Structure formats: structure tokens, C-alpha cells
């Protein structure tokens, strides 16, 4: 009997995977369009509203804390931190906001970061200035920069305009600090990172990994992100966010 007890206790101490034993790895998810796919563009860059709602309900019911980059300091204080990001500032991202309002409750505040292209604001299929202001004021959505014109930053001759110009333009719209940049096409190099550091606290790539603090130089300018696709099933989504 005693042997069994010792075995059970040993098992719990050494084998049971608890948060305090595991290294903290944080998922940062990347989405583009939240809409039914109607045949335009790349299907995998869409997630249907139905699937997105199921994914957010999964996060709610499994104790995740959704953060924006203003809350970076919280990553070591909250339960199951995760970042939800959207690139390109599509009008259909309003569907995500509506779903947030549907699934929120007193213990779960769904938040996300919208990385918008500042010179595209107000185009037919993109969020307008009024949308951005309203989303930002809601406290659920942080509006951040995806540059001014979505060039490959490693090739553009207008790096200052793309980085500083877009930051200033978005700040004028929301009245809030812009502190994070998503590199278009996930493209960056040493020069891009050095310029980004002048204006931003965070740089987002599309390296498909989890974030974990390694103490490496520039790690906040090389934040990885995991794609959620049209074809991602809820089972696959669960594996991605649980890091298994
Ligand atoms: Zn983009």
C-alpha cells in the first residue's frame, strides 16, 4: 500500500505537466479575414465567422486570457495568455468584433490587435477611420501598424514613411499610442529591425512558432505567429493554442 502511495506522489511531482513546471510558451495567432469565402483571394486567409466563434468559445471555456501588446507585462501574471492578431485591416474584421461581443462574459474579455495598412484605411473592403476609432474606443481592439502601403520592407526605399508615417497616421485616428508593427509578408532584415526599434516596442513576424522568453537580442522584434486557416478544425485549433 505504502509503495503505491509513494509511486502516486512521485508520479504527480515528476510527471504531471503543470504550468509551474513547463516553460512558458505563448501562442500569438494570426488571422486575416473573418468571413465566408466567396471565391476572392486565398481561401486559407479566411476563417468563417462560425469557426471563429467556436474558436473564441474554446478559449473562453478553457481559461485563456486574451491580451494586447499594451499588456505585454501581464504575460507572466495571467492564466494561459494568448494574443489574437489580424493583418491587413479588412472590413470583415468587424465580424470578429461582433463575435467578441457575443461570447464575452464577466470572466472573459476577448481582445485582439488589428494591424492596419494606414494608406488603405477607408478603401472599399477595408476598415474606415470611423471603424478604427470605434473599435479602439471599445477597449476590445488595439489598432496597430502594418505599415503605410504594405511593401516588402527589405526592398522599400521609403522605410521612414512606412514605419514612422503609418504610426503617426494611426495615432491621429485612434488617439492612442501605436507600439507594435507587423512586417508585411513577414519580411525583415537587420536594417528593418533597427528602424522598427526607433518607433515601436514590438515587431511581429510570421515565423510559425510559440513565443518564449529567451533573453535574446531583438526577440521582441522577432515575435512569431501561428496561422489559423480556413481549413483549421477545432481539434487542430485546440492543439495549436494548448501548445501540443
Ligand atoms: Zn499583410
SS-derived structural category: alpha/beta
| Overall 3D form | globular
β content, as a range?
Answer: 5-15%
Count helical runs.
Answer: 7
The H-and-E topology, N to C, reads as: HEEEHEEHEHEHEHEEH
Number of strands: 10
Hetero groups: zinc ion
Measured distance between first and last alpha carbons: 35 Å
Radius of gyration: 19 Å
Largest sheet: 6 strands, parallel
Question: Taking all residues together, what is the mean pLDDT?
Answer: 93
Helix content: 25-40%
| Low confidence ranges | 17-21
Describe, in plain words, how this protein is organized in 3D.
With 244 residues, the protein is an alpha/beta fold. Mean pLDDT is 93; it is low at 17-21. The radius of gyration is 19 Å and the shape is globular. It has 7 helices and 10 strands. The strands form 3 sheets. Strands 1, 4, 5, 6, 7 and 10 form a 6-stranded parallel β-sheet that branches. Strands 2-3 form a two-stranded parallel ribbon. A two-stranded parallel sheet has the order 8-9. Strand 5, helix 3 and strand 6 form a beta-alpha-beta unit. Helix 2 (49-61) packs across helix 7. The relative contact order is 0.15. Bound molecules: zinc ion. Zinc ion is lined by residues 87-88, 146, 150, 184. Zinc ion binds at residues 87-88, 146, 150, 184.
Amino acid at each position: 500500500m505504502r509503495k503505491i502511495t509513494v509511486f502516486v506522489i512521485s508520479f504527480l511531482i515528476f510527471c504531471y505537466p503543470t504550468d509551474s513546471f513547463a516553460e512558458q510558451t505563448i501562442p500569438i495567432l494570426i488571422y486575416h479575414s473573418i468571413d465566408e469565402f466567396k471565391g476572392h483571394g486565398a481561401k486559407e486567409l479566411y476563417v468563417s465567422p462560425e469557426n471563429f466563434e467556436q474558436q473564441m468559445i474554446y478559449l473562453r471555456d478553457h481559461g485563456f486570457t486574451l491580451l494586447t501588446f499594451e499588456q505585454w507585462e501581464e504575460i507572466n501574471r495571467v492564466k494561459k495568455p494568448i494574443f489574437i492578431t489580424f493583418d491587413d485591416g479588412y472590413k470583415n474584421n468587424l465580424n470578429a468584433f461582433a463575435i467578441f461581443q457575443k461570447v464575452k462574459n464577466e470572466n472573459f474579455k476577448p481582445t485582439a490587435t488589428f494591424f492596419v495598412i494606414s494608406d488603405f484605411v477607408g478603401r472599399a473592403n477595408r476598415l474606415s477611420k470611423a471603424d478604427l476609432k470605434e473599435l479602439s474606443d471599445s477597449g476590445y481592439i488595439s489598432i496597430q501598424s502594418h505599415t503605410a502601403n504594405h511593401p516588402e520592407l527589405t526592398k522599400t526605399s521609403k522605410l521612414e514613411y512606412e514605419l514612422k508615417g503609418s504610426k503617426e497616421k494611426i495615432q491621429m485616428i485612434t488617439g492612442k499610442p501605436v507600439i507594435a508593427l507587423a512586417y508585411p509578408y513577414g519580411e525583415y532584415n537587420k536594417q528593418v529591425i533597427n528602424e522598427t526599434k526607433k518607433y515601436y516596442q514590438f515587431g511581429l513576424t510570421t515565423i510559425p512558432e510559440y513565443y518564449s522568453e529567451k533573453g535574446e537580442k531583438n526577440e521582441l522584434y522577432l515575435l512569431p505567429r501561428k496561422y489559423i486557416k480556413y481549413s483549421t478544425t477545432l481539434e487542430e485549433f485546440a492543439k495549436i493554442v494548448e501548445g501540443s
